[in-house]
Structure formats: structure tokens, C-alpha cells
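Suppose a colleague, Dr. K., hands you the sequence of a protein chain of 429 amino acids and asks what its three-dimensional shape might be. Before reaching for any lab equipment, you can write down a predicted structure in C-alpha cell form. Begin with the sequence itself:
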Amino acid sequence: MCLVAACITCFMANIMMMATENIGALYAGRLIIGLANGYFMTFSQLYLQESSTAELRGVFLTGFNFFVSFGTLIGTIIDWATAKRPDKSAYLIPLGLIYVFPLIIICTIWFIPESPRWLILQGRFEEGVKALEWLRPARHDSRAEASAILAAIEKEKETSSGIGWLDMFSNPVDRRRTFLAVFAVLLQAASGSMFIIAYKAYFLQMAKVSDPFAMSNVLSAISIVAFIANSFIVVRYGNRRVLLMTGLLVCGILQLIIAVVYHQAPNAKSTGKVTVGLTAIYMFSYNGMISTYAWLSGGELPNQRLRSHTFGLAASAGFVGAWLTTFTAPYFINPQSMNWGPRYGFIWAPSCAIAATWVFFFLPEVKNRTLEEIDEMFEAKLPARKFSSYKCVGAARHDDEGKGRSSVEKEVAVFQNEKVAVETSVSRD
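The predicted structure, expressed as C-alpha cells, is then:
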């Protein structure tokens, strides 16, 4: 329903922007469509987090970021193609095309089940089972998985209070999970990505690139290639902590090199070439190692009871961080202000180093863990470094019999171990 609300809000904002010639109304439309975008970004990722298996969470979030980047590239090209039209069609055509995908979503979303974890949290157990049966392969024991989800929720209720904004901070475990989720999403802003993404055409122009807009589209295409590579290679074999630390350090070093080169020879043609090349590597590194895993960590670390509240707060913090970077960048890079240009990287290089240090000491590794296993590990109050080696109670045995089984089969084994006790509890209730 939140995604439906996002579509309706998007329609309202777009109608307002297309119908007005008043700058105040246009700003109001921009504000409202920003609210719709926040709903799209937050609740689409929440649905993916709650509905996917542990093995596929990373793949689905990579797909989400792929489509965000692909849509941004298409939108940028359309804006460029219509910008020189001499009448209102210069902006009415791009705005009119905004209707297409929200219309598709609002017409098809009724055929997709609600999040099974959310249904079970609301006490609608049988509906949750049916949603899992729709979402999982035919051989999967959906009732056993639903029972395990219910057991985790019931256990959580025993040690927790209500569901509200203050509950995110009411006890040490929830407070830890809230701060981890917020800071994980803020890693994107800490990497200085919005400086490169939002101002890449202007940034490239200052670096004396002959066609900054065309090159910015090339950089956007590189981002898409990074997401594709991520879905086939990094998601399967990668470690979230290692990837985030590596991505942050690589992005920090690249921005430092760009800043040093520009500082030494700001007007040299070779400086422009270095800037373009290293910016391309930056975009690949950021989208391949930071963007996906920052959002992924922000969504999988909160507990089920407070997931929408915590992830909503994390997403809001991420948007504020991106806005702050975008808003302040002109004061640093414009010739009329501080005139730093690409030297702005002198600020973001240490920021990346601090963020990588935080990941090393505080961010836990939860790759291929179910959301219920993550709950168990946080309740055990493990330090971040012990999450990857911890064996959850009832987890499938790591013996020769388990080798070669898919993650879905392993999850079934986990759920079956608890099935009898949980279903007895459900019957008694």
C-alpha cells in the first residue's frame, strides 16, 4: 500500500508541475515528488529485504540499484534530447514520461503478495504462508519457514516493548541495530559520491573535458556495468565488510589523486585525462562495492518488529547526507566561491578512510544469514568480528552431508529443526 501511495503522490506532483507556470507551485511539485521518491526508495527495498532468501538478498538489492542507475541514465538522455526545444514541450515531454512506470506499478502490484514477514508480524500467519508459497520454489517448505519467522517474532516480543520511533532506542540491542543501519546507509554520503554523481558534468568541464555531458553519460553507463558485474561475481563470492572497506579506500585514494593532480596542473590537458580515467574507476568502485552494500546493510540489520521504522530513519539520514553534499559542493568548487574544483577531493579522501575504519570495527558480517539468524546474533550481543563465524542455534550442520546443498535447502533444514516445537506453540496459542 505504501508503494501504491507513492505512485498516487507521484501522479499528483507531476500534474502540478506540468500544469503550472508559477515557480512557487513548481517548487511545491518538486517537494511532493521528492516525498514520493522517498517512499519508492524505502518501501521497495524493504519488500526485497523481507521477501528474499538470504542467498538472494544481495542479488535483488543489486538489481534495485541497477534499475535506479539505468532509469537515471535514460532520464538524463531524454532531458538532453528535449532541452533545446523552443516551447513548453522541452519540459512537458520529460515530465510526461514520468507517468509510465508508476502506472505500470499501480496496475500490476495487486498481483504480488504482501511481505510474508510483515503479514506474520500482523498476526496473519496463514496469509504469510500463502505469500511464501507464491515467492518460493515449489519444493520449499513455506510453512516451516513461516513457523521459524513466527518463533523469532514471538521471542523478540518477550524481550522488547512496542513498535514506535522511541522503541528504536529503548534498549541497547535495538539501539545498536538502529545506529548500525543509519551509519551503514550514510557510508554513501561519506564516500563523497554525490560530489561526483550530481556534479560530474560540471566537474568534467572544469577538468577541460571537451564534451562533459557525453562523458557524464559514459560514466553513468559504467555504473550500470558495475551493477551487472556485481550481480554475477561480487554478490556470490564477496564479503560485505571487505567490499565496503575496499570500496571506501579505493574511492578515497582516487579522489586524493585527482585532487593532487589538479592542484599541481589545473589547466593541463593531461589533468583532464587523468580526471576522466580515475572518475570512471571511481564510479565502478562506488557502485560495485559501496552503493549496493550500504543499502543492503541498512535494511538487513534492523529487527523485524522495527524494520520499517529503522530503515526509514536510515534512508532519511542517507538522503539528508546526499543533500548536504550536493548543497555544499558549489561553495567549494565554484570559481566565484572557494574555487577548489577537483581539489574538493582533499576533504573526501580522509572521510573515506574514517568510514572504512568504522566498517572494520563496528559493521557485522551477515552474508547468507536469514533475518531470523541475524536477530539471534544481535540478541547474543556478539562483537562485529564474531558474526561471520557464529553458529546459530538450530542452524544446519556444517558437515559432509550439508556440502553441495543450495541455500534454500539449508534454510529448509534450519526451519525443520524448529518446526515441531513452534507448531505446538502455535496450536496452543
